[in-house]
Design a protein that fits this description.
With 608 residues, this protein is α/β, with parallel strands linked by helices. It has three domains: 317 residues, ABC transporter type 1, transmembrane domain (ABC transporter transmembrane region fold); 133 residues, Rossmann fold; 72 residues, Rossmann fold, CATH 3.40.50. Helix content is 62%, strand content 9%. β4 and β5 form a beta hairpin. It is elongated.
Length: 608
């Protein structure tokens, strides 16, 4: 989901890209590092790249030869006998050179297309894969709208950089060199001197003004991404906005951000006008001086009319590439900034990663042990101080306590979304930090409190538990979760779309999909993270039976707020501010007359 914003695009200014001002702490890549990072993708197609360079040189050689042939045509036509013998072979040669100049360019583009698109695909895939490898902490802090823009613009930047750096910068410099050499050899050296002086002055002016403009450009794009993030956040929370009638408030917040974008965009456009005007003045002066010099040569008889035409055509041929060079330089800088932002995602370190010698988890009953585990999300606030417990194979352990006691943190640590600060977590005697994350998570299934579904079909969401499962296995899992009958009653059956985040389904229906998904995965260890807290009593009782059924013969961790859901657990832990203050069976804990007993009495009163 993205917002569409209409923006004026002035001559030689490309559509907006994403440029952020760098924070001092953020790692940055130099422009050369960004360019070097694309080298492997070019080397993958060595033959194509060589062929492209050959075609590029041929295209420029034919382009430079065109004015030379035109000069001969003009001189030949200017002679008295021209009326009797028209230089047909020169005219045909002129036409062929024009044709080949374009043809070589088109062949070059066709050959290079695969190189560019493969690079875009590889880098986008690399970034996407890396994002999935980053820790939960990164994803809790990221802004989805901003990250999606970073990837989108970064991949666009790759296409621009590869195409324009190879097809515009190099050919333009080659053409300028060839033209200057021809002018120097054939004519007064002042022709080459003026050409080079104009070029140097133009490049210096472009570099200085472009660097000055980049501040406005980066600010403008930062405001654009912030506005986009704000818009997406508001639209994702559409129902909340409606509940509180805050449509105007959201529009105002968006407009406040767009106002900042507007100010930066105006500065960007006015600075662009300054750049374009200055470039035009420099080119105009250079062209005028060359034409004056050529006209003087004709008057003195040292140059023919054909020479005058040749100089004029060369200046016209150089005018557009040279003027375009300024645009290309600016856009390459913009593309590098876009790519730098995307590559900075790749520079994000993986907080949790496999040890160099990590081995797959070997299951033998799936006994879980937390041994003196301490953990904190923030060093200033400890969540779990020295927690120890065991879950024997096939047993169910429940953890209860008030909100914020650290219950859900236990499941996140078991999945190894975070590493413990001290102590250890082991499965069948293997520290989970010593095994591969893939094998660890393959062994654990979860029915979460808030089941978030993909905006796809019910079949896809159940099948996500094991993507290679057959249709029969998916249906069997749905039947075991007692949702098959409901699915069959829908007009599209298993092909019914669930909507974004599963909003087309009720809370109970989403929970049953989550249960079916967990059943299909068939894990050795199960986690129920307050799996029935969002349901009414009738739905809770029905789903509770299903949870009890699939927990049979599996090592199970139940995180619960409602105590009625844990009475059958082999052991119950009472957590308070991260510490285990009571442990035992339901009956034992009631007899102790402690916190569990008080919580039970309070919940019994609420139910009656």
């Amino acid at each position: 989901m993205a917002t569409a914003i209409i923006r004026p695009v002035k001559k030689f200014d490309a559509p907006m890209k994403n440029h952020y001002s760098h924070t001092p702490s953020a790692p940055t890549r130099t422009d050369w590092r960004v360019i070097r990072s694309l080298t492997p993708y070019l080397l993958e197609f060595k033959v194509r790249v060589v062929a492209v360079i050959v075609l590029l040189v041929l295209a420029k050689l034919t382009n430079v030869a065109v004015p030379l042939v035109l000069k001969e045509i003009v001189d030949a036509m200017g002679k008295p006998q021209a009326m009797l013998t028209i230089p047909v072979f020169l005219i045909v040669g002129y036409g062929l050179l024009r044709l080949f100049s374009t043809l070589f360019g088109e062949l070059r583009d066709a050959l290079f297309a695969k190189v560019t698109q493969r690079a875009i695909r590889r880098v986008a895939l690399q970034v996407f894969e890396h994002l999935h490898s980053l820790s939960l902490r990164f994803h809790l802090e990221r802004q989805t709208g901003g990250v999606s823009r970073d990837i989108e613009r970064g991949t666009r930047g790759i296409s621009f950089l590869l195409t324009f750096l190879l097809f515009n910068i190099l050919p333009t410099l080659l053409e300028i060199g060839l033209v200057a050499a021809i002018l120097f050899v054939k004519y007064n050296p002042w022709f080459a001197i003026i050409t080079f002086a104009t070029l140097v002055l133009y490049i210096i002016f472009t570099l200085v003004i472009t660097e000055w403009r980049m501040v406005f450009r980066r600010t403008m794009n930062e405001m654009d991404s912030k506005a986009n993030t704000r818009a997406i956040d508001s639209l994702i929370n559409y129902e909340t906005v409606k509940y509180f009638g805050n449509e105007k408030y959201e529009v105002q917040r968006y407009d406040d951000q767009m106002l900042r974008w507007e100010v930066s965009a105006v500065r960007n456009q006015t600075s662009l006008a300054t750049l374009n005007a200055g470039q035009s003045v420099i080119i105009a002066i250079g062209v005028t001086l060359l034409m004056l010099l050529a006209a003087d040569g004709v008057m003195k008889g040292t140059m023919t009319i054909g020479d005058l035409v040749l100089v004029n055509v060369y200046m016209l041929q150089l005018y557009m590439p040279l003027h375009f060079l300024g645009f290309v330089y600016r856009e390459i800088k913009n593309a590098l900034a876009d790519m730098e932002r995307m590559f900075r995602l790749l520079d994000e370190s993986r907080e949790v990663q496999d040890a160099p010698d990590a081995q797959p988890l070997k299951l033998n009953g799936a006994a879980v042990r937390f041994e003196h585990v301490s953990f904190s999300y923030d060093p200033a606030r400890e969540i779990l101080p020295d927690v120890s417990f065991d879950i024997p194979p096939g047993h169910t352990l429940a953890v209860v306590g008030a909100s914020g006691a650290g219950k859900s943190t236990l499941s996140r640590l078991l999945f190894r979304f975070y590493d413990v600060n001290s102590g250890s977590i082991s499965i069948d005697g293997q520290d989970i930090r010593s095994v591969t994350q893939a094998s660890l998570r393959a062994a654990i299934g979860i029915v979460p409190q808030d089941t978030v579904l993909f905006n796809d079909t019910i079949y896809y969401n159940i099948g996500y538990g094991r993507p290679d499962a057959t249709r029969e296995e998916v249906i069997a899992a749905a039947q075991a979760a007692h949702i098959h009958t409901f699915i069959e009653s829908l007009p599209q059956g298993y092909d019914s779309l669930v909507g974004e985040r599963g909003l087309k389904l009720s809370g109970g229906e989403k929970q049953r999909v989550a249960i079916a998904r967990a059943i299909l995965k068939n894990p050795a260890i199960l986690i129920f993270d307050e799996a029935t807290s969002a349901l009414d009593s009738k739905s809770e009782k029905a789903i509770q039976d299903e949870l009890r059924s699939i927990a049979q013969n599996r090592t199970t961790l139940v995180i619960a707020h409602r105590l009625s859901t844990v009475v059958d657990a082999h052991q119950i832990l009472v957590l308070d501010k991260g510490r285990i203050i009571e442990r035992g069976t339901h009956r034992n804990l009631l007899e102790k007359k402690g916190m569990y007993s008080q919580m039970w009495a309070l919940q019994q009163q609420e139910e009656h």
